[in-house]
Design a protein that fits this description.
This protein has 252 residues and is mainly alpha-helical. The protein has two domains: 146 residues, no CATH class; 87 residues, no CATH class. The chain is built from 13 helices and no strands. About 6% of the residues have low confidence.
Length: 252
Amino acid sequence: MASLLGSGVFASRNQEPENLLVRAREGDECSRNALIRKFTPFVLRVTSQTSGRYVRLGSDDEASIALIAFNEAITSYQEEKGVSFLSFAETVIRRRLIDYFRKQTRSQKEIPLSAFDYESEDDTGEEGNNRMEIRQATAAYMAESEANDRRNEILYYNKLLQEYGIRFSELVEVAPKHEDARRRAIQVARQVAETPAYREYLRLKGSLPLKELERDVDVSRKTLERQRKYIIAVAIIFMEKLDHLKEYIDKE
């Protein structure tokens, strides 16, 4: 019976948790509630590890979801499969939390990277498969979340461009063809974004302060006018801190 909760969890003299588990599985609600109370610290520890942050009972949804998952584990645990109850419960908790993370909106960007740290001395058998499934689910969620972030960022960027009379579809056409010219245009755009007066001018008038820029940068006014749309488009990326799009600019 001691193996139900994993070796070394309790001294052999104290069999109460094991007895609670047996009685809870036989339908004793008092024993079930007592077992949940006794293992609440364990549940919160697993939840914090999976979420990558400290989780409080009563104030964080993750804690409630984890306790429900622990209760589910009591009901569905099968001793004959050779997995300790606590290992099984940990797997169920992490699965339910992963499902919860999948449903979250962009506001929850600190997606639990710590879920990848879910390690075991033995990653074989059903328990190992469960752990691998959790890792794969986390990786899939993170990839999907990043893809959604990129799509939403592009939609937002397209809306911003329209305010300046620029179409997203024409950016390739208006971009300088030569690498050196693109780099100079990006430098000008960065200066516009980082100079309060230039930034305010662009936002208020929707155009570049060509006269002032001509004095400050090593680019002719004629070139500034020809590259106007591209410079504005890149300046918007810097001004709005559009990190995914900025990755492409940084590669130049």
